[in-house]
Each structure stands twice: as C-alpha cells, then as structure tokens.
Amino acid sequence: MKTQVLIVGAGPVGLTAAMDLASRGIDVLVAEIRHAGDPPSVKCNHVSARSMEVFRRLGVAARLRAAGLPADFPNDCSYRTTATGIELCRIEIPGRSTRYSATGGPDTWWPTPEPPHRINQIYLEPILFSHAVAQPRITILARTEVVAIEQNEAGVVVRACNLDDGSSIRIEAAYAIGCDGSRSLVRKSIGASLSGTEVIQRVQSTYIEAPQLRELMAPHKPAWMVLSLNPRRSGTTVAIDGHDRWLIHNHLRPDEPEFDSVDRDWAIRAILGVGADFQYRIISREDWVGRRLVADRFRDRRIFICGDAAHLWMPYAGYGMNAGIADAVDLCWQLAAHLNGWAPASILDAYEAERQPITEQVSRFAMDHALAMMAQRGGVPVEIEDDTPRGHAARAALARAAYDLNVQQYCCAGLNFGYYYDASPIIAYDGETPPSYTMGGFTPSTVPGARAPHLFLRDGRSLYDAFGPGYTLLRLDPAIGVAPLLAAAEKRGVPLALVDLMPGDTGNAYAEKLVLVRPDQHIAWRGQVAPEDPDALIARITGAAGVAAGARPAVAVPA
C-alpha cells in the first residue's frame, strides 16, 4: 500500500491530523488497532475553543456542538462537601443551548467564533471518525497494528499486522505521524525519550451507571462537574450523559501509592455522600497517573509524533487532547505545504521549534495547578460540614479559595489564545516581545508568532471565516499597494488571499495596516507598509530562506 502520509492512531489527534491534511489535498492512510466504530474510553471531557476553531474550519464543529450533554444541561463546575452535600461555590458555564448567546460570568466573553464545548470523548470521537472516513482522501485501516517503521531518503516503510487474520501489510509513505499514545511505537522508533515528573498524582477513576444519583443531587442545580471537598475523601463527579452515567475521580493522596490503596467502593460513596443502600453499576475502571513528561524530540527526518506520543501531563483544562490537536494542526499545514510543492522540506523544521517549547510551558502550567489542587484537597478543615459559626466560616473561606484557584482552569482563555511561537524559523519577527499570559488571562496581540486576534466583521461574519485556506494578508488601508507581495507568493506557488478590512471592522485589535496570517491563524509578519523585499519575506515564511532562488522543493511521494 502507498500513500503520501501515514498516521498511526485514529484517536482525536490522529483523526484531526488526517482531516487537516485531506482538506489541503493530501492523501492519508490511518492505521488503527481498534475495530471501526469501537467506542473509546471516557477520558477527555472538554474540547477547547482553539480546537473548536479547528473543527469549524474542517466542517465538523456544528455536529460536535449538537452532541454530548442535553442542550439545557448546565456546564457549571459545582464545589460541594460531597456530590449530594452542601454547595460551596459554583463556576457558571453555559450549556449547549446558550453557548453562543450567553453573557455575563467568567466563561462567556471568549474572543472566538467557537467557544469551548463540554463533551466526553465517547461522543466526540465517533463524530470525528465518521467525518474523517467520509473524506475521499482518507483511508482508515481498522484492526491494523504497526509493528515496525523505518525510513530512508525516499520515504517511510512500515510493516503492519492485520489483527483479525494475522496477515502482514507493507505500507510506503512519504511521511509518517505517530498519534499512537503514551506507549507510542513511533516515538520509540525515532529514539525519542520522555523526561520530566514521572508521577504527580494517581487517580482511581471509575465509570458508573447510577440512575438514583441525579435525583439525590436534585436540591442543587445540575452541573457538568461536581467537585467534592471534605476531610474523608475529595474527588470529582463528571456528568457523562446528563442522566445516569458518571465518571468518578478519586484523587489519591501522596501516602496512597497504588490504585488499590483505597477501597474503590468506599471512596465512591464518600465522594458522592451516599450510604450503603445506594446502588450503582461499574461500567469500567479508568485509573490513570498524572505526569509531566515531554519528549526530547518531536521528529526524526520523515517521522513525527503528536499528542500523547510526544507529551503526557495532568489533564487539567482538557489540555492533553487539545494540545495534541494543536500539534497536529501546526504540523499538518507545514507538511501539506511541502507535499503540495510550495515549500521546501526545511519548513518542517518549524514543527519541533514551535511545539516543543509550548509543550514544556503549558505542561508546567498544568502541573503547578495540579499541585495547588492537591494542596487544597489535602487541607480541607474538619469542621467543613458543621452547622456552626466555625463551619460556616470554613465553608466561606474554602468557597473563595476554590473559585479563585479553579476559575482559571475551567475558563482558561490564556491557554487558548495567549500562547505564541517565539523561536520559529518561519516567522518574520520584528523585535517586539509578545504579551505574557496566564492559564486564565491574556492580551490579544499582533506580535509575530501570536494568534491573530479574532473579531466579528460588520456583516456578522467571523474574521476567521474570511481567511483563505493558505496564508491571508489582512489589509487595513486599501491605499497600500501589495501587488509585489502577491506576485512574490504566486511565483513560488504560495496560496495567499487578500482580505481588505474596512474602517471600524477591527476596533483596537489591529494597529498595523498589514498583517500576514498563517494557515493556522498565527501571525507570520506585520507592517505599516508593504515589505521592501517581498521575495525575501515569502522565502522566510515558507522555510525557503536558504534555498537557491528559483529552486522548487523536491517532494518524494511513493509512486
């Protein structure tokens, strides 16, 4: 079998990579060990705004938005003594029915056409799979295990096994991407190793069916996530379907080193606040270890890794899967640029240069937050449930602390929109330092490397919907002549769309009169006037700065 790009793994990251490449005209083959349509485990519960922006561009956001919890089910995070006990505080997050229209609160001001979406992976992944398999350029080989991968100057050669009949499959590709999870064979094949913090916390996680639970929680408004804080056992209860299915996280303490250190049934009842007569059924055990591990390399020549194959960390803010999706998008537009012939292979050097530093940075955000959460759970005062002045005071203090600590996690605009690439070989920097950001806050910026600030145009369209599929040149002054820049792009075959913005369209978001935006919505260059040397600029942003003038990139695609 031959293809342009082989992707190992058909989870959300691998499927996003396949869809992104296919949308750019690249033929993709995806190898997946599961049966087609097999449900995934109940891991991720949150799709970030940046990921939803990607899915909007790929034409699948509306289907995702229509799935998950019932439309009127609040996506709030409620902090209580137990899931059925006293509510301490609540972080209000709109449900599906009001996600686009809600105002007020910490989660309604998002500067994006696609705010976050709370949806469990068991609903998310089948939608992505059905959308991907319908694309003519994508072939998914189910029940196929990659057992060996090699590369040479011409491409990648893979040996795979059909898990149903044991037959051997040979696959040839120009490039390969490993989206094959924490035990990644692809990562091992390129000699990459993970380093960091092996264990931050163990979590005994249980997926249950409990028809009684919603009624027992009825004194409180429903919530997507209920976080129990009490001296006996703190934990998290996640609503999966809004009816009778729940995911219970029992956050083990430092002196509980094994998953069976604590009786599972006792812990579930302590977290929920129910007695021995409460009935539930265990659907699956989903125990996991929170880590902070980052690969020392994301690439070896023609082979790349994304997602859990490249990094593992505490899944706060859903940023395991969502960071993997960001990896895939960053890599795939560059890979398509090369395979489509308008960028040399050197453009691919940008992937590791851009994503590895961001991974290090964001993984530390997640770890630091996890440590703060562990301290908060371990410091719950014994009088927290008492109906006494001391009990009331303890609840008020913990409510303030829990809200302040966690609103930045669940309303994490900084992690969505604030990060930037500051050491990329394909960005034309101008010496200005981008604004700093936190997990929860950021300042929109047009500094090269930052995400292009979003806004809605006067005709109601999202600015992002006006972007072309390749580069987009935003021009805020139509008197500026940009014909030489457009011609320089055309000469190299670089797709470049010109979008003129009218006075009043941008408010204060864009101070420069020209802003060049990459296919992934990050800024490649900006200026008040057209570039003096447009050929040099095009060479810079496509990785061709060191390539001989007039040379076309040589792309090896198996015949």
Textual characterization of the structure:
There is one protein chain. By secondary structure, this protein is α/β, with parallel strands linked by helices. It contains 14 helices and 21 strands. The chain has helices at 12-23, 49-57, 61-65, 121-133, 185-189, 213-216, 264-272, 319-339, 349-378, 389-410, 413-418, 463-466, 483-492, 534-541, and strands at residues 2-8, 28-31, 77-80, 87-91, 138-141, 144-151, 156-162, 168-178, 194-209, 225-228, 235-239, 245-251, 281-285, 288-295, 299-300, 303-305, 311-313, 471-475, 496-500, 514-517, 523-527. The strands form three sheets. Strands 3, 4, 9, 10, 11, 12, 13, 14 and 17 form a nine-stranded mixed sheet that branches. Strand 18 (471-475), helix 13 (483-492) and strand 19 form a beta-alpha-beta unit. The chain is globular, with a radius of gyration of 25 Å. The model is unreliable at 548-559 (pLDDT under 50).
Short summary of the structure?
With 559 residues, the protein is an alpha/beta fold. The chain contains 14 helices and 21 strands. Strands 3, 4, 9, 10, 11, 12, 13, 14 and 17 form a 9-stranded mixed beta sheet that branches.
The helix content is: 25-40%
**How would you classify the helix and strand content by structural class?**
alpha/beta
Q: Mind telling me the C-alpha Rg?
A: 25 Å
Poorly predicted tracts of residues:
548-559
Choose one word for the global shape. globular
**Number of β-strand runs:** 21
Percent strand: 15-25%
Mean pLDDT: 93
Helical element count? 14
Instruction: Please summarize the sheet with the most strands.
Output: 9 strands, mixed
Q: For the terminal residues, how far apart are their CA atoms?
A: 10 Å
